[in-house]
What does this fold into?
Amino acid sequence: MRWTTGVSERHQSPARAFASDRVHWARIVRSDELKAAREALESEQSYGIVITGARDIGKGAFQTALVRSLAPDLYAQTLRSTRVGTETPYGALAPFLARLPDEALENPAATMRGIMETLTADAAGRPAVIALETPGGLDELSTATLVNLMITNTAKVIVVATRTSDLPQDFHWMLTEGRIREIPLDLLPEEKTEAVVEEVLGGIVPRTVARMLHAMAHGNPELLYRIIGDFLQSGQLRATDGVWTLAEDAETTRSREIDDVVRTRVERETPEVQTVIEALACARRLPLEQLASVFGVEVISTMDEAGLITVEDGDRHSVALSDPVMEEVVRGWLSIPRRRELRSLLIGNSEPALETLGVVELLGYAAWTRECQAVLPTEHAMAAAHASLRLHDPHFALDCLEGVSRAKATWATVQRLRAGAYLALGLPVQAHAFLEQVAEEEIGALSPIDFAMFVETLAMVKRATPGREREITALFEDSRARLLVNAELGGAPEPETQRARGILDLAEFADAAYRGRFASVFDRLETAAAGVPGGDDELRLRAGCLLMQAQVMVGREDEALATLHRVSSELAGPAGTPRVRQEFVTRAFDTLLFNGHWRQCLALVRSAGHETVPSLRVSGAHYEFAAGLALVFAGRGSDALSPLLAAIAQLEQGNVRATLGCAYAATAFAFAQQGDSAAARSYLDRLEGWSAPTSYTLHASMEFCADMARRWIGERGASARLVDAAQEDIAAERWTMAGIRLVGATVETGNDELALLEEVCSHRQGALAELGRRLARGTRLRDLTDLVAASDLAAGLELDTLESRCTAVALDIARDTGDVRSARILQARLDRLTGLVEVLPVVPQSLGPLLTAREREVAVLAARGESNRTIADEMGLSVRTVEGHLYQVFSKLGITSRSELAGLL
It folds into this structure.
């Protein structure tokens, strides 16, 4: 299948039209529940179903969709029981009552009989269903009538309720005995949201966009429906070149419809409860004791019973609003004076002690303070900014630091945090400017650990700033000398100085890895990753993350996997800090990718995504790109295009350009794997206009994908560039990348390059290295055993494209040497791979043992099951001649029976 860029009108029109069709949305979102509901209603033992779910989750739309799906085979009557209806006899069945003659209203028995007769007449011989919403409950006579309709098989009932406990007692025994089945409507899981959004919008929906919509809606399908409709109407959700993107400033609280729904719900509560709702909306989370002391235990208990709040287990028993949408909307309509009033009521003039705040409470307090247009105290601002950066929300980190006063003791740290935020936003020049504004005396006021962290950030910023990377070596040398002098002067305790040195070591190791100089720090990295008794476990694990990346690049692939598993086993422990987990994901991806374990790469990427909208906006595109890169390395160009095009659409909108070049190259390679030369060239042209500082591994992947795309579409010189780059890798002892490049280059090069590939693979470990060695030696020496072994190794790694290459070369050798049986097996293997690989990298050149025209005629008849005598009579030959032809056919094709002919002709 050829991938098409661009969204047709067929996709765009339904996307915009769906906003007015809530029932169609319910069919898509609740397809599984609709199937379960229909199956329950079709059961002969069933009296009906009860649809349950939280308020505003779409129960009414689901009921309507279900009723419509039953027509015209079933007759359905939709009713609604209002709060007033519960006080009126037959209130839920009022539409039937209005149609009954006066004599049918004389007593309950006559009324019940009249309703049953009316319903039967309306159904006109079809099965009948009564669909009933019960927001206010049911009166006794309506309940009795409905029960009678069910047990007499006059009609089945579809009841909508918040929970089964809201139903009349008469329904409970039916639920217990399975005569009524509950169909619960829950929040959507993330995977379901992705599938639904893709089906509704069509085209390419980036996983990041779907996850952001899911986070905005908090999994509520009804809210998701409204959000998508609003965004489509406002143009904040739009398709460009076939890829849907979401505007950076898109917010859910702008929807008037959502605002009205929440406002109606809040206004139903008492003034005391409304005040608590407003306070929790501002604070996000508060300790139960504090909340009860301000508003009273009775109010809090009432809210708990009504399901308005959730109370966390734990020492603090933190309280939050149970509905995050209510929290967001209420916070949006409060004025600044009202927010300040509530803050004063709960906090007063004092600031909460940092040690009493968890991360959620800290960020909630910081957000509340900033929403009141107040400046955070410096210590609180730095702590909140640090937490925000860990959660990939640089915008809020900068907001927390806004207005913080300059003080000698803290200014360097404040500027470091600001620089980290701007670096995350792809603005290294601005980040460097913040660090340059720090005076020498302010740097001197830092503790050794804070100083080392300042240097670490400065090195990262200089790497990302064009023209500054040459300053990093001197920076490390000066920083080490400074720490040494301070230690000799006794300015800090030894453990603190030791940790500072460890941080500087890691910064230097990370810089070497960024530049591809893995061998230069390898021994020191091994020592740091081994750790010492009583040492810093966080630094040891960070060193382990760097070590596994270095190991895989210098050809120690098996050792890299062992290190990966060791570090992974400790991530759940106290040393598995957010910083460690983030570095693990990044470097584990390279470790798995260059080991050929692309499926594990996809699993890692999928499990490592972020949950909040800000973090998805900052990092989501990189996860799309990583998934696409893993797929294109695996030779699955068709599968890779969707995430790659999604990543490009998002990366081009932002400032982070380091990944964009590799995304262009990988996309060109994916199109080349499909045989689409024009599309491949267009992305190679985009790559020509790109430039940005980037890491060695990213740059090497970009070069490899670009050169492979050029080689695949037939550009001259591509193979030579791959060999030249491999020579540079060999000089730097990057054996793994050298081997990967040479595997790609040797499709077209000669024996010298094959011998070089074999030599490089001898410096490596693992299945991918053995595959390259066998492929090189088997191709160079025309050894069938090596090539078949290489094919088997590729199959084990699910590298179909590489397996097809090994198989095609082996097939040529088998045919040329007259090994008919092996040729037949290899041909069958290549035929299978041809269905998986869109464009074979190598096509067999030898035609093998060909049948003569007469032999083919005889073989075709024999394959049909004709006897030798019949064949002889039909062709005018003697039986002995037919037998001779069949002997030659069997010999050439390497078979022993007629039954094998059918699969070969």
Summary: Residues 1-14 have pLDDT under 50 and may be disordered.
